[in-house]
Design goal:
Elements: H1 7-17, E1 22-24, H2 39-52, E2 57-60, H3 72-92, E3 96-100, H4 109-123, E4 132-136, H5 149-158, E5 164-169, H6 170-175, H7 183-196, E6 202-207, H8 230-238, E7 248-250, H9 257-270
Parallel strand pairs: 1-2, 2-3, 3-4, 4-5, 5-6, 6-7
Helix pairs in contact: 1-2, 3-4, 4-5, 5-7, 7-8, 8-9
Bound molecules: zinc ion (ZN).
Zinc ion binds at residues 136, 169, 206, 251.
Length: 275
């Protein structure tokens, strides 16, 4: 949804469309500077979400963040941005901040993973209580980390008991070579993920269809049912056993409210569809 119009009217619109949870950026997703921290405004917004019964609110960190970066300036800015974003989430009462694992930028996979671990080690003592950072899998193209679930596992296992979890993006998983197009693919893909981390650490799913080739390393989001994952894939995924209030979040292309409503309906139908 376009940010213009403001948080409150947009939240009202999503609720009216049938949404039960939402994800927002803490500010301009391509800027290193977050908007002024207006406690009163944040308070107003979180009270409104409560009123609308929208839960949880998920905060998606800005796109510039790269905790794996070999560049000291980017490394530091990324670490500080996550700390700031975690505090914003706390102010909203949002339980989760989502971040892409990052890109090693030709420094090599192991260096990249080590940088992420170092970044997390440095910043965790400054995180507020009650907010969990979710590492999102990527499509794995180029020097992107987190396409392979083993990348997520390696980072998560380094911090046992820490407020860390995973957000699974279906389009990214497909791009990285994981099948999600039906009951069998979904079962196999989740099994591979759960080999890396405890199922309870999967805290959110980004539900996006995609028409890139499986394993192409590409990242392109498509409307629900208009890509390779298809309605059967989403039906299988949504009908797994999930905890109450488990957030499924749409990140489909922004082409207007009517299409958003259709995507939401398609998901709700999928969750009841017979398999
Ligand atoms: Zn995503």
């Amino acid at each position: 949804m376009p940010l213009k119009g403001g948080f409150i009217p947009n939240a009202g619109r999503t609720r009216e469309m049938g949404a039960e949870c939402i994800q927002v950026f803490p500010g301009n997703p391509t800027s290193w500077k977050l908007p002024h921290f207006d406690e009163q405004e944040i308070d107003k917004r979180s009270r409104y979400l409560l009123e609308l019964k929208i839960y949880p609110l998920v905060i998606h960190s800005v796109y510039l963040v790269n905790m794996a970066s070999p560049r000291p300036d980017i490394f530091k800015k990324s670490r500080d941005m996550i700390i700031q974003t975690m505090h914003r989430a706390h102010a909203y009462g949002a339980p989760y901040v989502v971040v892409h694992v990052g890109s090693h930028s030709a420094a090599g996979r192991d260096t990249g993973i080590n940088n992420v671990i170092k970044s997390l080690e440095e910043q965790m003592p400054q995180w507020p209580e009650g907010v969990t950072l979710l590492l999102e899998n990527t499509s794995g193209g180029g020097s992107l980390l987190g396409g392979d679930f083993r990348d997520l596992g390696e980072i998560i296992r380094y911090f046992p008991g820490a407020p860390l979890g995973v957000c699974l993006d279906t389009a990214h998983a497909w791009g990285a070579g994981y099948d999600l197009s039906g009951p069998r693919g979904v079962a196999e893909t989740l099994e591979l993920l759960y080999r890396q981390l405890d199922p309870s650490l999967l805290k959110a799913v980004h539900v996006n269809d995609t028409n890139v080739e499986k394993g192409s390393g590409k990242d392109r989001h498509q409307h629900i049912g208009e890509g390779w994952i298809g309605k059967e894939g989403f039906a299988s995924l949504m009908q797994q056993e999930w905890p109450p209030d488990f957030p499924f979040i749409l990140e489909t292309p922004e082409i207007g409210t009517e299409k958003d409503r259709q995507n939401l309906q398609a998901l709700k139908q999928a969750s009841r569809q017979e398999l």
